[in-house]
TrEMBL record:
Organism: Leiothrix lutea
Transmembrane segments: none
GO terms of molecular function: lipid binding
Protein name per UniProt: RET5 protein
Subunit and interaction comment: Monomer.
Family that this chain belongs to: Belongs to the calycin superfamily. Fatty-acid binding protein (FABP) family.
Top-level taxon in the UniProt lineage: Eukaryota
Amino acid sequence: MPPNLTGYYRFVSQENMDNYLRALDINVVLRKLVCLLKPDKEIIHTGDHMVIRTITSLRDYVMDFDLGVQFEEDLGPVDGRKCQTTVSWEGDQLVCEQLGEKKNRGWRHWLEGDQLHLRMTAEDEVCVQVFQKVK
């Protein structure tokens, strides 16, 4: 049975964010700004429904979805694109596939103890973030 990811998680670290954003064609000014942000994550996981909030001082991004059901995701706040998104479980990892203009776009969340890990991909770039559960 997959874990319940419900909780609030504080930013700990990230690797390769600038190259990941470059793969999404984000301009240099916005890339530099995003790389300075230390986002928090709030996840509400109820059965097959999830809400994932990425919280920053600049703006929040909310994903509200049912597991295994494809939906159109508006990534306008991120890179101005829309894509067809499906989020499902692969073992103990929550996996998101974002079909659209960019190849190999998506992410996966998993827990290691009380740390939430996030691996984001776009084209050939990978960014990894780690968050510490606080409640």
